[in-house]
Amino acid sequence: MDEAAMDEVAMDVVPVVLGSGKRFFGSVDTQHLLEDPHVVIQGDRGLHLRCRVRR
User: Fold this and answer.
1) Residue 10 phi, psi dihedral angles, 5° rounding
2) Which of 5, 12, 13, 49 is close enough to 37 for a disulfide, judged by CB 3.0 to 4.6 Å?
3) pLDDT tens-digit map of 8-49
4) 25 versus 52: which is more confidently predicted?
5) Of 14, 13, 7, whose CA–CA distance to 35 is shortest?
6) How far lies 23's CA from each of 19, 20, 26, 34, 44, in Å?
7) How far apart, in Å, do the first and last CA atoms of the chain sit?
8) Predicted pLDDT of residue 25
9) What are phi and psi of 5, to 5 degrees?
């Protein structure tokens, strides 16, 4: 998928301690600016966010 085609990012934020290890997304060569979340859902143990990518 072309990185320029990304319109939105959905993420779940959960507090957890993992220690050392490999990056989940690998190395990131470019910077993507996100707008403030337009959807925020607070769950029992985490936060669910949806953010549009700023162009």
Assistant:
1) -110, 130
2) 49
3) 999 998 887 777 766 666 777 777 788 999 999 999 989 999
4) 52
5) 7
6) 11, 9, 5, 20, 26
7) 17
8) 66
9) -85, -5
| Whether the predicted pLDDT of 4 surpasses 70 | no
Q: Kindly report the CA angle at 48 between 41 and 27, in degrees rounded to 5?
A: 160
Distance CA 31, CA 46 (A): 25
Read off the amino acid at residue 48.
H
Q: How is the chain split among helix, strand and coil, in percent rounded to 5?
A: 5, 35, 60
